[in-house]
Amino acid sequence: MCYDRGYELTEEECNVSLADFKAMYVDESGAVQRQRLAFHARPTPDMQKKYTPLPRPGNPEPAPDVGTIHVEFSPQPSVGIKDLKAFAQLLNEKNYHTGIFVAQAAPTSSALKIIPSILPTVMEIFKEEDLLVNISRHELVPKHTLLSPEDKKRLLERYRLKETQLPRIRMDDPMARYLGLKRGQVVKIIRKSETAG
Fold it and tell me: According to its UniProt record, which protein family does this protein belong to (predicted)?
């Protein structure tokens, strides 16, 4: 998922064989040591370009709205306020821009209230079962590509559209969550058409 978003990950990090995975992350009893699965990655220059807003008169050289991501897997069977506060504190201390917290079960509703309180740091929460299958590789899911602000501007000019006239994708859409989309971003969806071929 992080590779598909545009973070710097090597081929070896993305494609680990089962035997290597067991050697690195499984203990003698056969249980996965989730604490060892944590990693962080920097955005690629292409990703930084897609997340850099267009220059404006008050801001001629805008900074990209993306940074280092940290992914952590919860060893606890349930997630509460204490777990997410500790994760938020880690993101703040290490100065990570985005954090992905992968849990075995959905967090409590009171724990989810922490997420807006740590802005501008972005915290995303996924259940392990949601990440077992790479949905972007499924034959029924069309290819989604995030457009840069320049591409978005060209698209709107080409079709003489306002941003509000584009079709919308929900924030809780599985592909929107997978790609970590933010409000105002535009995604190009390439799929086979029954009428156009």
Answer: Belongs to the archaeal Rpo5/eukaryotic RPB5 RNA polymerase subunit family.
